[in-house]
Design goal:
Layout: H1 7-11, E1 15-20, H2 34-44, E2 49-54, E3 57-58, H3 69-75, E4 79-82, E5 85-88, E6 91-92, H4 99-120, E7 127-131, H5 133-147, E8 151-155, H6 158-161, H7 167-179, E9 182-185, H8 188-196, E10 204-206, H9 221-228, E11 234-238, H10 247-253, E12 261-265, H11 271-280, E13 287-291, H12 295-304, E14 307-310, H13 319-326, E15 331-333, H14 339-342, E16 349-351, H15 357-369, H16 374-381, H17 387-404
Parallel strand pairs: 1-2, 1-7, 2-5, 3-6, 7-8, 8-9, 9-10, 11-12, 11-14, 12-13, 14-15, 15-16
Antiparallel strand pairs: 4-5
Helix pairs in contact: 4-5, 5-7, 9-12, 10-15, 13-16
Length: 405
């Protein structure tokens, strides 16, 4: 991990954060919201910041496997240490049918005792750093008022692109954004969406996500392909098995690419439906469902594939694109939100003309006609290290503290 050498940090007091988000990984769900943890790891590696992570999870009484994802909530430890960061997991009630409207208040109510306990223990933090605007950012605004602390909120994608379609979340997001010391967008496209919601431009800054260049790097491609039995052009699709990620489009595209194989990494409610789709289309023998791949192992699949396909309906700043590029594998992706900002050169890959199976096929054809060198794709990804983001955060938090006096 690169360490930021900011000389000014040595003369400045240590910044103490409370990182607040229900999108934070745990020992039970290690890939959940890992981009939040990664940004924090790099920030703390600067040596200028301390943080405790407060990551509430819904309350659920049963731990048995038959209860699926809900049981994971029950099995989540109340407290743990991840990558040297103390993580607290207080429980909050998730009320069926009313969850969307009540979640911010319930999150804040569950978090407040844990926060006050932290302060009593001696960790009196300077800033609440929240991730995801709704319900987390709204809950952070409530906590900040009760504790008289400044707070920041990072918009991630769906929280701005989808949830404001509902009147109450839209109003609460606007309220939280007006209370925040700073609102962070992970792409210019997301900032533009925030402006359309009426959020003050002067209160928004863009700090893009980076990529862990140490974790994601080129591997021995030929050896790994032999191990996986890949002897033809192979697509990789990574993400939750939900319609919005577009895995079904890649499956359908195989009917027009008879020599191409597809690997799908991810879990979700649509797995059985996607397996059935592949069977009905006669391509099941060329589709492999990998399941939930730990992030530390993903490079073995990025590196073995010929291309990553991301056929998403919407995104904020999809980390999988940069992860794949850092492993030397170009990508094909839809032209939504921050994706064109990531894919700004031929070495990155190809943007799809349309979000359809035919769009995937044409993207593959264009990429294969002008396939970049793997080393060039890796070099392109290297400009997206976490250094600029870390320095931007340090400047932001120092400004917030200076304005508070």
């Amino acid at each position: 991990m690169a360490i930021i050498a900011a000389a000014e940090s040595h003369a400045s007091p240590m910044i103490k954060l409370l990182t607040f988000s229900s999108l934070y990984p745990s020992s039970v769900r290690p890939n959940h919201g890992i981009f939040v943890e990664t940004r924090l790891r790099y920030l703390m590696a600067s040596g200028a910041v301390q943080s405790v992570a407060l990551a509430p999870v819904p309350w659920f009484p049963f731990k048995g496997e038959r209860f699926g994802d809900y049981a994971k909530f029950a099995r989540t430890p109340r407290e743990e240490i991840r990558n040297g960061i103390r993580v607290l997991h207080p429980r909050y009630p998730l009320i069926p049918r009313f969850g969307m409207t009540t979640a911010p208040a319930l999150l804040a109510a569950a978090a407040l005792p844990a926060v006050r306990r932290l302060i009593r223990e001696g960790y009196d933090f300077d800033v609440i750093d929240a991730h995801y605007f709704y319900p987390d950012g709204v809950a952070a605004a409530i906590l900040a008022k009760k504790l008289n602390k400044p707070f920041t909120v990072t918009a991630r994608g769906t929280d701005i692109n989808v949830l404001p379609h509902y009147a109450l979340p839209r109003a609460m997001i606007r309220w939280a954004a007006a209370q925040a010391a700073v609102n962070i967008a992970v792409s210019q496209a997301l900032k533009n969406a925030m402006l359309k919601l009426g959020i003050d431009s002067g209160r928004i800054i863009v700090l893009r996500n980076g990529v862990d260049l140490d974790r994601f790097q080129p591997i021995d491609r030929a050896t790994r392909r032999r191990e996986l039995g890949l002897d033809t052009f192979t697509l990789l699709s990574v993400g939750n098995l939900i319609p919005g990620k577009g895995h079904h489009l890649s499956i359908q595209a195989l009917t027009l690419m008879p020599e191409v194989r597809l690997l799908i990494a991810g879990v979700g409610a649509k797995r059985r439906a996607y397996e059935q789709l592949a069977h009905e289309l006669g391509v099941a023998g060329r589709v492999v469902f990998l399941g939930d791949i730990p992030q530390v192992e993903l490079k073995n699949y990025y590196g073995a594939a010929d291309v990553l396909v991301l056929a998403s309906e919407r995104e904020g700043w999809p980390n999988v694109l940069l992860e794949s590029m850092a492993c030397g594998t170009p990508v094909i992706a839809t032209k939504v939100s921050g994706i064109p900002e990531i894919m700004a050169a031929p070495e990155a890959g190809v943007l799809m003309d349309e979000r359809t199976p035919l769009g995937v096929v044409r993207g593959v054809e264009r990429l294969r006609a002008h396939y970049p060198e793997h080393a060039a794709t890796r070099t392109y990804a290297e400009q997206f290290s976490w250094d600029d983001t870390t320095n931007g955060q340090l400047a932001l938090f120092r400004r917030v503290l200076a304005e508070r006096g």
